[in-house]
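Re: the request from the purification team.
They wanted to know what the chain is likely to look like in 3D before they choose a buffer screen. I agreed to run a prediction and write the result into the notebook, where they can find it.
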Amino acid sequence: MINRLFSSIEKLVQGGIYFSKNKYLTSREFYKTAYHFLLIESDSVGMKGYLTNIGNTFSITKELDSSLYYYELGEVLGKMVFFKFHWLIKAFFIT
């Protein structure tokens, strides 16, 4: 578990470096790899951020349909996380 999370962070950093150097396709591949590590760990909070990063790579390369897809996927995931924690907190304080 720790190795996958570390690998995810490493890929995120590498993606950010390539993004800052205008190497958007390479950056996208690193972000997607990082996303898959978090998917294995079911880290939905981290996954939302990585989906936004992937969407950014599509947006900057003018692939707007794809960027919108990843942004919307991240938004849906974010809402699911909110409702999940909302019900957990509600259940904790009621019982």
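For the purification team: The chain has one domain: 2-94.
Please add any questions underneath this entry.
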